[in-house]
Give the backbone structure.
Amino acid sequence: MKLLESSRFEAINSALCFETGDCKIVGRIESYSCKMVGSDKRLFKTMNAEASGGLNDLQALSPPQSVLISQSPSRLYSRSQSDDGEGHLCDTINRKTLFHLIGTLNASFHPDYDFSQAKSDEFSREPSVDWVMNTVDSNLFATANQAYSALRSHLWAAVDSEISLHECEIFSYNPDLASDPYGEDGCLWSFNYFFYNRRLKRIVFFTCRAVSANSSEYGRDDLELEMNMELEEECIAQASRVTQEAF
């Protein structure tokens, strides 16, 4: 998966990292082309070798967490259909699409996490664009009302411009605690959404979490950023000294 540069997303990502007093919000939105890079080709080869029915082999998905939490009496999310048009008892995904989702996770969380062993039942197909927007808005409004109010319209306009929301299938990643990159103590909520536009061959990945102010993880991202900046400055200074010594 190839990361696509977006100045609009960069600006929104800066605004998606803020403190509310009780917690800290850390989020980012990234756009990826479904074009394979080196690491993707290895994953593709492995998944293709495991697929007895080829990359169109259907794998079972889990029900969306948002639907389970709401305890909706009706099954709002659509059923996938096989080539013969028959519905399945559970929603499904073919291996090629699953490959794109796993590849996106690997690219976004590299080098800290590797999701190559992720299974289809760790993912869900979301009911609709409106359903996902409402879920995201509910989380962020509840945690950061005023700060998110100023950002909301710009955020969704940027996502729509990049991926054409109403042309998308939307998936979510809902792993168990052991596999969750946000499984640390003090994480109040988190979400990982994939907006997949097959026509554009592109995925927009929206990931966000809220960390309690009482958590040991609070402020960790700022510390890591500061350490990375210090390391970068040290490398630049060292390179400058080497250049001066050479002349």
In short: The CA atoms of residues 168 and 197 lie 5 Å apart. The two ends are 42 Å apart (CA to CA).
